[in-house]
Design a protein that fits this description.
single chain, alpha+beta, Outer Surface Protein A, domain 3, 3-stranded antiparallel sheet, 39% strand, elongated, structural constituent of ribosome, ribonucleoprotein, Ribosomal_uL6_CS, ribosomal protein
Length: 177
């Protein structure tokens, strides 16, 4: 029995849900998102709650039960509150800035790294060493943050690089004479 799937998803005020047999869409103050549903689970809406139930007792249906419920919860939370990831840049000469529809990172390479900001995301360089990525789609926010971090991940000797806010880097001892 899924511990996640058996709980309902609460729909806050200001969010409208459109439920069909194959898809669910949510519309709120931050935009509109949709999710394609599988035939292994049944999604129903009662009052201001969305319930997810497996269609049978098969392994795939039980696996998708909690996953579908979590995806629907992310859909509802995204259009009502949104998601934000913050990246910290550490290192001498490392900095970031937003120029139009591009995020420009200076990470110690011989060239600047330019990343196109996807539609639906808002990227703000709060300081030259702090980037805030926000949007309604949790997957899109996380993927863009991971791509930015992937250019120069934090290294364990000096701690330089791009890391998530609050991420702890396990530091190693350097060479000894």
């Amino acid at each position: 029995m899924s511990r996640v799937g058996k709980n309902p998803v609460a729909v806050p005020n200001g969010v409208t849900i459109n439920l069909t047999e194959a898809a669910i869409s949510a519309k709120g103050k931050l935009g509109e998102l949709s999710l394609n549903l599988t035939s292994d689970v049944t999604v129903t809406q009662e009052d201001n709650q969305i319930w997810v139930k497996p269609n049978n007792d098969g392994k795939r249906a039980r696996a998708l039960w909690g996953t579908t419920r979590a995806n629907i919860a992310n859909l509802v939370a995204g259009v009502s509150e949104g998601f934000t990831k913050k990246l910290e840049i550490t290192g001498v000469g490392y900095r970031a800035q937003v120029q139009g529809n591009k995020l420009v990172l200076q990470l110690g390479f011989s060239h600047d790294v330019e990343m196109d900001i996807p539609s639906g995301l808002s990227v703000v360089a709060e300081k030259p060493t702090l980037i805030a990525i926000s949007g309604a789609d949790k997957q899109l926010v996380g993927q863009f943050a991971a791509n930015a971090r992937g250019w120069r991940g934090p290294e364990p000797y000096k701690g330089k690089g791009v890391r998530y806010e609050g991420e702890y880097i396990l530091r190693k001892e350097g060479k000894k004479k």
